[in-house]
């Protein structure tokens, strides 16, 4: 389904997941760009699909790459896991050139990946997908009590917050003392 | 699968908060002091101006938020309760979750809402108002009370610079006359836009003060106390009185007063009588002219009323009005520029 290939940036990616262009499509051939995540798997994505990402769209506009240059220089997103980037690319391809409907059934469902997906989508500035992900997060606590919400959203209790704060202060104090001692040593 | 919400970037956190319902925000605010601070900071930066905070003290008490006004009925707005108070004695058998005890109250959770259990209803009401107002950074928009809670009018008007916008004086549970309470209520500044009165008063009750200025006065029942003198001294844009005992002669006197420049802000008047008084015989000096025009008046809360085949009447300064009488019913719409709306 997806246009991925294991390897370096020089690896030739397969065709993208986008549907074949209709007869009414513009005559100008579509340009493609290449992205990879932490796993170095390169994804070939059309410029149309990448328009969903304000970050990548901005990069493309500034670079003015030719097809060859784009292939040789995939955009590296080392902070995004490969499977997460795959989800994002799939979503961008499915929604190429059209807005997301309010209830989008094509969106990633893996709850366990939601946190990483949210971070990636936020980083890539894909507004519609971010809104959907945030709706998923908000839905998690519908009808839940404060204590249930605390568990679902991993919110520390007041006591845990206080303990963490004490610990942080203690650590900061130790570090400051260490630095002072080191500075005194240097002075000698 | 848990989601570590506090580890998300600020933009994401704000987006999630903006999706949550008001009651979910209040519920989440009880998770920890840290979350409470975070939510407060969010609403300090993005005041939810379209949300209207109301204290409903009738039947113990709750704070609710109006997120959207229903255009057809002033009383049926999208009311979303966010925080309830109940008497401490109800705590054990009512809460669906383990009770959390603090120095001031016990906190439970029932019907998807946080409930605070107090010994003292007044103290509880003040606390939930302060809590919600502080959390959302909103003034109190409305107050719904019965005669046991008249203290709340002054308390709210003293705790905020902005006057109450909506005031609803409910019928008391005891079903007995509340002349003194009604008098007390009417002499307070009340609210700027909507005043709704529903409580019971005796047949002999009379009010000798002034009422208004405000937007709308709706005496939803027991409007028999309103005399001609009261009516010409009311200062409202829209007046609706149920169970009025004003006579045809009173009405003619009122219209004469209006033509001479009385009640210059009035845009709409509706009188409903229990009797079968026919409000159609207008005195000749009023120069009411029968008209076949069909016109529509839109009330301030959105409801539309159509006038067919009424009478046109003109004030000395040229402002026109349409009046229409039925059996036991009288309507008047004044066509100030703002209110003109062809059907």
TrEMBL record, chain A:
The answer to keyword Amino-acid biosynthesis applying to this record is no
**Gene3D superfamilies in the cross-refs:** Potassium Channel Kv1.1, Chain A
Low complexity compositional bias, start-end: 8-25, 178-188
Annotated TM spans: none
Where does this protein have compositionally biased stretches of type Basic and acidic residues?
A: 165-177
Named in its record, the pathway it takes part in is: Protein modification; protein ubiquitination
Single Gene Ontology BP term?
protein ubiquitination
Q: Where is this region: Disordered?
A: 1-25, 160-188
**What Pfam families does the record point to?**
Skp1 (PF01466), Skp1_POZ (PF03931)
Sorted alphabetically, the keyword list is: Ubl conjugation pathway
Every SKP1 component POZ domain range:
38-96
Please state every residue range assigned to the domain named SKP1 component dimerisation.
127-170
Q: Tell me which family the UniProt entry assigns to this protein.
A: Belongs to the SKP1 family.
Query: What does the protein in this record do?
Result: Probable essential component of SCF (SKP1-CUL1-F-box protein) E3 ubiquitin-protein ligase complexes, which mediate the ubiquitination and subsequent proteasomal degradation of target proteins. Regulates cell proliferation during embryonic and larval development.
Q: What is this protein called?
A: Skp1-related protein
Organism lineage: Eukaryota, Metazoa, Ecdysozoa, Nematoda, Chromadorea
The gene for this chain is: Cnig_chr_III.g8742
From TrEMBL, chain B:
Residues in domain F-box? 2-54
PROSITE patterns under this entry? Answer: FBOX (PS50181)
One Pfam short name = F-box
Source organism, top-level taxon? Eukaryota
Q: Which InterPro entries match?
A: F-box_dom, F-box_Sdz-33
Name of the protein:
F-box domain-containing protein
Q: Which species does the entry assign this protein to?
A: Caenorhabditis nigoni
Gene, per the UniProt record: Cnig_chr_IV.g15179
């Amino acid at each position: 389904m997806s246009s991925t290939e294991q390897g370096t940036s020089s690896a030739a990616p397969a065709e993208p997941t986008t549907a074949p262009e209709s007869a009414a499509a513009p005559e100008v051939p579509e340009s493609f760009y290449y992205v990879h995540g932490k796993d170095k798997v390169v994804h070939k994505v059309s410029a149309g699909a990448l328009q969903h990402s304000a970050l990548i769209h901005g990069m493309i506009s500034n670079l003015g790459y030719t097809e060859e240059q784009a292939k040789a220089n995939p955009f590296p997103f080392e902070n995004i896991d490969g499977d997460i980037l795959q989800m994002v690319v799939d979503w961008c391809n499915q929604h190429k050139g059209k807005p997301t409907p309010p209830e989008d059934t094509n969106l990633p469902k893996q709850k366990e990946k939601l946190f990483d997906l949210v971070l990636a989508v936020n980083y890539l500035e894909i507004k519609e997908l971010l809104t959907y992900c945030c709706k998923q997060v908000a839905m998690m606590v519908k009808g839940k009590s404060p204590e249930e919400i605390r568990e679902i959203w991993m919110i520390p209790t007041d006591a845990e917050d206080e303990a963490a704060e004490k610990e942080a202060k203690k650590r900061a104090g130790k570090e400051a003392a260490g630095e002072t001692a080191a500075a005194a040593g240097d002075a000698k | 699968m848990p989601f570590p919400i506090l580890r998300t970037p600020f933009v994401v956190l704000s987006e999630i908060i903006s999706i949550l319902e008001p009651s979910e925000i209040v519920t989440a605010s009880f998770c920890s002091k840290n979350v409470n601070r975070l939510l407060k900071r969010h609403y300090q930066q993005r005041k939810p101006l379209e949300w209207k905070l109301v204290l409903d003290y009738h039947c113990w008490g709750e704070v609710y938020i109006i997120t959207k006004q229903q255009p057809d009925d002033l009383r049926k707005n999208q009311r979303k309760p966010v925080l309830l108070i109940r008497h401490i004695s109800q705590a054990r058998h009512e809460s669906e979750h383990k009770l959390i005890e603090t120095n001031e109250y016990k906190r439970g959770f029932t019907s998807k809402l946080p409930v605070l259990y107090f010994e003292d209803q007044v103290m509880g009401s003040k606390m939930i108002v302060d809590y919600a107002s502080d959390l959302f950074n909103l003034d109190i928009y409305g107050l719904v009370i019965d005669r046991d809670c008249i203290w709340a009018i002054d308390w709210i008007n003293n705790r905020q610079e902005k006057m109450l916008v909506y005031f609803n004086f409910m019928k008391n549970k005891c079903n007995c006359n509340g002349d003194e309470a009604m008098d007390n209520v009417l002499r307070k500044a009340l609210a700027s836009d909507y005043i709704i009165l529903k409580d019971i008063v005796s047949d002999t009750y009379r009010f000798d003060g002034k009422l208004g200025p405000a937007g709308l006065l709706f005496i939803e029942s027991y409007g028999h106390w309103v005399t001609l003198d009261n009516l010409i001294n009311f200062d409202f844009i829209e007046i609706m009185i149920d169970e009025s005992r004003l006579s045809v002669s009173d009405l003619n006197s009122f219209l004469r007063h209006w033509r001479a420049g009385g009640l210059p802000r009035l845009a709409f008047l509706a009188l409903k009588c229990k009797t079968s008084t026919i409000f159609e015989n207008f005195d000749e000096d009023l120069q009411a002219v029968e008209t076949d025009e069909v016109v529509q008046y839109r009330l301030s809360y959105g409801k539309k009323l159509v006038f067919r085949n009424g009478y046109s009447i003109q004030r000395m300064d040229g402002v026109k009005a349409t009046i229409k009488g039925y059996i036991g019913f009288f309507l008047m719409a004044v066509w100030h520029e703002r209110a003109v709306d062809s059907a």
